[in-house]
Amino acid sequence: MLVRPKSLFPSVIRSLGDVAEALVAAWPTDDGKEYIAAVKTCLDAIQGNIPAKTARAALVRAAEEAGTPVIAVVH
Asked: Residue 8: which pLDDT band, with cuts at 50, 70 and 90?
């Protein structure tokens, strides 16, 4: 989950599609080294070139860069 500023509810990220939507439509900034890397990594994962867990790690780094808290939920 991403806890976004100015939002009453956290974003639940369950798929690569959710990662892409969070990065493109709902990210608090559109720049930053980790943000750009996360967008590229997400596209690579969607195309099947890298594992989804790599995209998740990139998303977490981008969230840290943006000052967005991340809550990991393990089933």
From this structure: low
